[in-house]
Amino acid sequence: TERSGHAGATFGRDILVHGGISSVLGVNGETWIFSDKRTSWTQLTFNPPLTSPSARTYHAFFQLGSYLVIHGGEGEERAWLDDMWSFHVGSMSWKQVEFMVDEGQSDLQPSERSKH
Q: Which of 13, 19, 49, 74 is the most buried (most CB within 10 A)?
C-alpha cells in the first residue's frame, strides 16, 4: 500500500523498507525487501511479532557492516521512540539492541526522537 514516513536502506543491490504510515494501515511495522535479482518485493514476517521493531514512522535507518539499523521514530499515538533495532542481512532477522549502562550513570543513549 502507499505510505509515507517509512525508512529504507540498501544492502548490496537490494533494498529493505520498514514502517511508515498510510490511510489504510495507519502506523505500521511491516518489513519489505526488494530483490534486484528477482525485481520484486517480498513482505518479511516474523514470529512471534516481538522479534521485530514495533510500528513506527519517521525513524532513522542506516547500514553498519552487515547490519541495517533503525533508531527512534514515532510509534502509535505519535509517541516518540528511543529504541534501536538491527537487521542481520545474512539471517534476515531483527534483534533489539541492548544498551549497557554503568552503575550510577544514566542517559547513555540518545533520547526519544523523530524525523532525525
A: 19
Instruction: Report in angstroms the alpha-carbon separations of 68 from 1, 34, 107.
Output: 23, 14, 24
Please give the grid coordinates belonging to residue 70: 533503525
* 9 vs 93: CA distance, rounded Å: 15
* pLDDT of amino acid 60: 96
| 16 compared with 46, residue with greater pLDDT | 16
Give dist(CA 100, CA 105) in Å, integer.
10
- In the numeric block, which cell numbers belong to residue 44? 518479511
Average pLDDT of the residues in 56-61: 96
| Cβ contacts of 48 within 8 Å, gap of 6 or more | none
For residues 58-68, give the mean pLDDT. 93
pTM of the model: 0.86
